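Weekly modeling sync, notes
Attendees: S.R. (lead), two postdocs, one rotation student

Agenda item 3: backlog of single-chain predictions. S.R. asked that every request posted to the team notebook include the full sequence so nobody has to chase files. The rotation student volunteered to paste the first one in as an example of the format we agreed on. Action items at the bottom.

Example entry:
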Amino acid sequence: MSDRTTVPEQLFLLGNLGTMITYAAITVAIAVPVARAGQLRSNRLAVATALIFLTSAVGHGLHAWLAFANLDRAEHSVTLVWVWVLAWWNVVTGAAGLYYWISRRRALVETGAIYSDPGRQKLLDEADVHRATLEAVVEHTDDAIVGITLDGTITAWNGGAERLFGYTAAEIIGSSASVLADDPGAAEQQEVIRRIRAGERGVSYETRRFCKDGRPVETSLSVAAIRDRSGRPTGVSVVARDITAIKEAAARQRAVEERTHQAQRMESLGKLAGGVAHDFNNILAIIANYTDFALEEAAGNESLTGDLTHVRTAADRAVHLTRQLLTFTRGDTIQPQDVDLNASLAEVGGMLGRTIGEHITLITVPSAEPVVVHADPGQIQQVLLNLAINARDAMPDGGTLVLETDVAGLDGGEIDMQPPLPAGTYARLLVSDTGEGMSAEVAAHIFEPFYTTKPRGKGTGLGLSTVYGIVAEAGGSLNVYSEPGVGTTFRVYLPLVTAPGAATVPGPRSAAPPAGGGRTVLVVEDEPALARVVTRILAGAGYTVLTATGGPQALTLFQQHGCDALLTDVIMPEMSGRRLADLIHETVPTLPVLYMSGYSNGLLGTTHVLDGDIALIEKPFTAHDLLHRLAEIIKPVIGTGHPAPAEPEPVP
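Predicted structure, as returned to the notebook:
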């Protein structure tokens, strides 16, 4: 073997041996950790990489063996067997390479690594579990979670949002968030997004939003910025919670507290007035008696007698006032007995007919059955007279005064009764007028002693406080409903007594009201608190409720959704309930309508605000009565109240 041939052969041998060792080492470096981690079956890319390095190592080993075998030969030659061995091994190496490239795309794209450390892989698995848990929490929470871009487009919508607002994710994603708000609410949304864009981390506030069916919902919103890695805001996340029930409960609690404070105030005023009245009576007794003595001594002196007569008249007026005070404080002597309110109504009606004035139209509406209470007859007449005189004074230019008696049921939850009454059936007196009416601020004080809105010298401020004292002493309660420029209705509730031998007065319905069955009722009420109460009652009974705060909004909701019945207040700003019903009846003449009003049926009928054959439920009403009354007007087959609108206006 010559040096000329030995050196290249040796170099070839050494090169293949080195490459073989390197590839074998890489194979071990990959295979051993993968095997220890138990990933020989799951980590396809690692196995494929180890295989391709192993086949390459074996291939270089074969070439090294051939070089070693030819070192001592003068002429180098490869047998046919070794040619086939090398060829087939190259095929094996190619197959390993193909397997590697197939595995490479999946492994690098999906996992981003050939080999995952077992500890790191555990952390990644736990992170996946936590992420899945978080996604489940977001999807199934009762709160609405919404993603919105900085231009107001909805991009995310969880299950809570579907349940709260009625839109599915497919319906709402891609739409503007302004579909959930009216015009002021949309402006509010834009302002909040502007503040987030300006750098605020979060904004929390309470507002009103609207569901798919147009129903308003009181919501508490928590808005936070969504930021990219650089900290720049790219959108907002909104967490919305329905607080309608909470606000209703708070409003009811405030009303109860105010009612309690009112009762305490009335009690304190009563004690004060009672003390003053008793002491003042002693003084008046002295004045009156000594005036009488002086009149006897002044006989024949016409000038002195006239002066003393004026003093005696003033003393009599003062005595009358103190009697009213004692009545208010329940300190006067009364003689209660069974009294038919129909008889009291007839007696007072006859008296008023002669004295109230020709400019007042007086109407009495007695109950068809005896309405018997246990009270002092004179005090019942005093209640009617005081209320009637107040009504007359509220109609200086004339009007209508209606006196009624009937029987009514209360569920004990009414918040506008003074004082409160437990649930039950009561006799009721109603005194209604078409006079000037009162604001809510005035109505809150009318039963306080000496409170009056009449000009100085025209009223003592004791008429309604006396009424309050009489009614409270008899175990009853008062309710007043008034609107400035429209009129006032006083309702007096007294415990009902069944007169011996008289027919039993029918009480409230005891049967459960029928379910709504998904029928749609359009509720129109300009008082938001009452609208929420009515909506809750109807929704709880299985009705689908559309709520509007006025006639124009109600027309829009009707054009968009239709309805099976209309429940509307009678007296409202912009458009009356009767006008609204007439407009809807132009489209659906047979649509059932139930009116509700704080005024009595007698007043509305006699003043032609409503016809006598309309369906009316008087406020305050119970849930039981409302559902029964509504079921009575809805026909068994409903289907004509759903017009298909062409291009409806958006609901604010």
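Discussion: group reviewed the output briefly. Residues 560 and 644 are 7 Å apart (CA to CA).
Action items: rotation student to repeat for the remaining queue; S.R. to check formatting next week.
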